[in-house]
Design brief:
With 349 residues, the chain is of the alpha/beta class. The chain contains 12 helices and 14 strands. The chain is 35% helix and 17% strand. The structure holds phosphoenolpyruvate and manganese (II) ion.
Length: 349
């Protein structure tokens, strides 16, 4: 349920209601707007007499959250979630558009990763991506360097100051991956691995959750809810393409319309991965431009200096000069996008 406090409610009034809900066994969170503060609460409604809460000092009204996802919903948390990192980078809300770039897999030679990291840094990227635990469709493909790869990533962070994002595939490995990374990535194939979602929900590390291969919007947001329900509210949603009927020319279908949908339904930051969505290098730059225009908070792309020799996803990896050119172009798109305003009649359409 949502408890809306009066505009004049004091901190004491807010705390009083919050404490009471917690006493009743509810999990609560606060969402402070410019005028109103909202207390979100989930728990067993049978244990609370709504009228007694409604009559507490400065409670304006009590409404139920309509969507099945509660903590992730904008209804119960009108302000955008902004995830702040130690180096000053932030993701979500009105923060600067961010990019995450790097190889699909971290490979044995750390120099290769450092070369990519330098290029990512030079072009203005904020995050270095790279998989050490790889979810491969075939058991005969490269499965990842595991902890050795994480060490290479940590060294690349030392050298460049870039933030690190890497995939975690298993709840048992989650604390290890969290030790090395700034953001934990839960991949598309694991979007509904509920044990993993619960495990990363207990860690104090932001999580980027990729949309499952055929996940509906509700399933996607309920997966985020699993993470948040465990206490970790720093979740980034990532659209990475969904299964369509024709993969002849595109690996998946990039569902860009989900960006405004997610922003309407949820307060969580939204990023887009055109690499896994399209599967082809030449499609990345146009879809990156479209990502900015869709209103997303950021982008993830795969980059490799010699994609023909990449151990995974070479065909969809940008070469370093292509990455730099895309980033230069993107800066113009970002600047142009900032000049646009949505007319009131369209915002409501
Ligand atoms: C990846 O980002 O390396 C990856 C495997 O992506 P996805 O889970 O979207 O397939
Ligand atoms: Mn990949």
């Amino acid at each position: 349920m949502i408890i809306v406090m009066n505009a004049g409610a004091s901190e004491e009034d807010i705390q009083h209601v919050n404490d009471r809900m917690q006493e009743l066994g509810f999990k609560t969170w606060l969402s402070r707007g410019d005028v109103l503060t909202i207390i979100g609460a989930i728990g067993d409604k049978r244990l609370v007499e709504t009228e007694s809460i409604a009559s507490m000092h400065n409670v304006k009204e009590i409404v139920s959250i309509r969507e099945p996802f509660k903590m992730a919903s904008r209804e119960a948390h009108p302000e955008d979630t902004v995830i702040k990192f130690a180096n000053g980078v932030s993701v979500g809300g009105d923060s600067e558009f961010i990019t995450m770039a790097g190889p699909c897999s971290i490979e044995a030679d750390p120099k290769l990763l450092f070369k990519i990291a330098d290029a990512v840094k030079k072009a203005g990227g904020q995050f270095l991506r790279g998989g050490a635990f790889k979810p491969r469709t075939s058991p005969y493909d490269f499965q990842g360097l595991e902890e050795e790869g994480l060490k290479h990533m940590a060294e690349a962070r030392e050298r460049t100051g870039l933030l690190i994002i890497t995939e975690v595939m298993d709840s048992v490995e989650a604390p290890l991956v969290a030790e090395y990374s700034d953001v934990l990535q839960v991949g598309a194939r694991n979007m509904q691995n509920f044990k993993l979602l619960k495990a990363v929900g207990k860690l104090n590390k932001p999580v980027m959750l990729k949309r499952g291969l055929s996940a509906t919007v509700r399933e996607f947001l309920l997966a985020a809810e699993h993470i948040m329900y465990q206490g970790n509210e720093n979740v980034i949603l990532c659209e990475r393409g969904i299964r369509g009927f024709d993969s002849t020319f595109t690996r998946n279908i990039l569902d860009l319309a989900i960006v405004p949908v997610l922003k309407k339904l949820s307060h969580l930051p939204v990023v887009v991965d055109p690499s896994h969505a399209t599967g082809h290098r030449y499609l990345i730059a146009p879809m990156a431009n479209a990502t900015v225009m869709s209103g997303a908070h950021g982008l993830m792309v795969e980059v490799h200096p010699d994609p023909d020799k990449a151990l995974s996803d070479g065909a969809q990896s940008l070469m370093l000069d292509q990455y730099e050119a895309m980033m230069n172009n993107l800066k113009k798109v970002i600047a142009f996008n900032k000049t646009l305003t949505v007319p009131e009649c369209l915002a409501k359409a």
